[in-house]
Design a protein that fits this description.
The protein is an alpha+beta fold. The chain is built from 12 helices and 14 strands. Helix 1 (6-14) packs antiparallel against helix 4 (60-92) and helix 3 (31-54) packs antiparallel against helix 4 (60-92). It is flat. The two termini are 47 Å apart. It holds the Pfam family Phage_capsid.
Length: 418
Amino acid sequence: MHAASPLLLSSVAAAPRALAHAIVRADMSDPKKVIAELQVAFEEFKSEHDKSLKAKVDDVVINEKVDRINAVISDLQKACDDLALKIAAEKAGPGSIIGDLPPTSPEAVSAFKAHMRKGEVSAALTKSSDAEGGYLAPIEWDRTITSKLKRISKIREFARVVSITGAGFKKYFNDRAVGSGWVGETASRPATTTPQLGALEFTPGELYANPAISMQLLQDAAIDLEQWLSDEVEVEFARQEGIAFLSGDGINKPHGILTYVTGAANAARHPWGAIEVTNSGQAAALTGDGFIDLMYSLPSEFAADAKLYINRLSVGATRKLKDGQGNYLWQPSYVAGEPSTLNGAPIVEVPGMPGVAANNIVALYGDMAQTYLVIDRIGIFVLRDPFTNKPFVHFYTTKRVGGGVFNPEPMRALKVAA
């Protein structure tokens, strides 16, 4: 059961009287009510924003009202998205998440807890003595963390993910520069150009976590150690991956997608060139024309699965944008499970994307699955170490991940510039 968030309630309480009749304290567990209030709020937002555009002078009261309604819309849209995820999970059931410990397999759960507390392993797995450290991580642990990382990291969720068993991954590229020409029946046939091959290597970097638990706590705690440690590692690994997939420099980590944009550090790394840039149209602001130019600069072959990758604050700024006919480009999602859109493109909120400021790459638009490659070296390894820092037991956890652009053509970038 979801309760209304403090941010949402404070935003509603601070909203002007004109909005009070439209937005009430929602039952955040009822998708229909949340969607209905989202629709009312957006209509109120458009009305107040139109008033601010028609005002001959800058009206501070109206502008403040617009900003407050905008904040309420963001909270309602997020609540709607969260409910959709909850509904989908409930429909799928606990057994649908790949790698979860089966609820009907108490032996697997008991074996894992025994290993985490004392280094013991059930007879179904390889035995190790305490002197050797019991260096073993059950498969269920590995796969559970991987699946959760996919849900948390938005770049990982929409990118192409390849699992490898070796030390690295190499991708070959064909420039299709074969020549041809028309000739007469008896004319000579001179040599034509031959396609050239290029290669990129994706070498995984290593993520690690080294949490420690006292021996007495391991012996006495009546908690789900598997869930506790999984959650801790999940959050930190997801945070580090999210940063690297966007802006990683490639040194012991992935090459971030933003580093392949024209003018960035890896603009010349790919044989086919950099991710092309479209300017917003203003030196320090977003414009409707800028987004339209961005979307139509993408070849139609990649448009079917294209999405807009942008941070939440920038989404708030896009709600004020209109097309040439006065229609708002941003539209909320009134269907549970469907994202809000901008000019018809689904919006994916990526917290690490730069905000609206001069010369920032504020948004990416394109098919992420055909653009960015995530390389997973199979296996998350847990080393149980009760010796290094007695009386603490360390759970040294590592995961090797690489990444980079394998095709810049299906993606475009929006730069805040005139």
